[in-house]
Specification:
The protein is an alpha+beta fold. It has one domain: Hotdog Thioesterase (Thiol Ester Dehydrase, Chain A, Roll). It is 23% helix and 38% strand. Strands 1, 2, 3, 4, 5 and 6 form a six-stranded antiparallel beta sheet that branches. A hairpin with a 3-residue loop joins strand 3 and strand 4. The chain is globular. The protein starts with 7 loop residues before the first strand and ends in a 7-residue tail after the last helix.
């Protein structure tokens, strides 16, 4: 995706504890960066957080997570992590994420979540108001949400 396709960015600085001896980010940290950026996207949306969802007995579970390594991030880089909802299923949401340093695209990824009833671990429909809220963030016409 192009950088301008993202309506939401979260910035993180690479810490020393996240790099190897060459000062390059260890590959496993990118999923953590995605998780932090997604959490901030969700907080920005104003939709129920994980604690509120848990009280209602429904939560989002990770179904899929992918990382594509294009170029490495390095110690002290300011990472700009774009998050975008790329689509909905009946009970699932797919997000694409990309990490940039300035204009340089470093990492691409995808997170797929399924909304489910916790006690039986069975998928349930994503609420219509969630779809509308995310469509507004992404500036999508209602027919695409």
């Amino acid at each position: 995706m192009a950088r301008e396709d993202f309506a939401f960015f979260h910035t993180l600085r690479v810490r020393w504890s996240e790099v190897d001896m060459q000062a390059i980010v260890f590959n496993g940290h990118y999923l953590n960066y995605f998780d932090v950026a997604f959490t901030e996207y969700w907080r920005h949306s104003g939709l129920p957080n994980v604690l509120q969802q848990a009280r209602e007995g429904r939560e989002m579970f990770t179904r899929k997570a992918t990382v594509e390594y294009i170029a490495p991030a390095r110690f002290d880089d300011n990472l700009e992590i774009g998050v975008r909802c790329a689509g909905f299923g009946r009970s699932s949401m797919r997000f694409v994420l990309e990490i940039f340093v300035g204009d340089q695209h470093l990492i691409s990824g995808e997170l797929v979540y399924v909304y489910a009833e916790v006690s039986i671990r069975k998928a349930v429909a994503i609420p219509d108001d969630w779809r509308a809220t995310i469509a507004a963030i992404e500036k999508l016409p209602p027919s695409q949400s």
